[in-house]
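User: I need a structural model of Membrane-bound protein from Companilactobacillus bobalius DSM 19674 for a docking pre-check later this week. Nothing fancy, just the predicted structure tokens so I can convert them on my end. Input:
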Amino acid sequence: MSEDLREKNKKAAEKQKVASAKNEKKEEVTSQIYSADTDDLSKKLSNKNAEYVFKLNKRLLDDGFKEEEAKEVIDGMLPEMIDNQIKGIPANQLYGPVTQKAKEIAHPVKKPKKTPFWGLWIDTALLFFALFGLLYGVVALTSKKTDPNNQTGVLTLIVLSLMWGALLTWFNNQMRMPKSERPGWGKTIGYLALGLVLMFVFLGAMAFVPTTINPTLNAVGYFVAAVVAYGIRFAFRRYMGIKEKTFF
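Assistant: Understood. Predicted structure tokens for Membrane-bound protein:
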């Protein structure tokens, strides 16, 4: 029984040794391919891959590439092409049809630029400023008396917009992450609840702030402020190239 176990372990160790040697050999071959001269690599192309390179070169020249430019592009592809050729993967399977690959090279698709948190925060805060400005304008328009608690002042509007902007931007960023990387709903709801509590505390504190620091506007003033804020947001989104939506 023990002899059988030793024999099995011996065979497993030998298999592992062989596999390790093969991996080292593959890594060595790959290293040699990527460090080899491109002229030498082009001589190692199979007939199918050589034909692919010929057609691709012709296509690039037809698309306006200079000979040196087309050669530079194809030379950069050769190591990967040879590496996959050894694995039995031809160029048309690796890159797709010649017309498709030439189009990708001539007209590369730019990945959308990811907007930093502060950019999305300002964008969202400006949107909330416009929304709250409209709300404050309606309140001022329909109220016959001035709010004694002074919770609809300009300072309140600015800080509240910044707080809502930060909270919603954080939430949106969590929702844009892959499901496997998102925090649990318990944690997310906890952060949202904390943010809302801080906002209510802030609103309560604003009742003690004098009007000299937190002045109020009339209805027209709030409406104008809302329009200006939305206009600034429109220009800011264009300047930053923001494509993300504020609300899903």
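Before docking, keep this in mind: The chain has ten helices and no strands.
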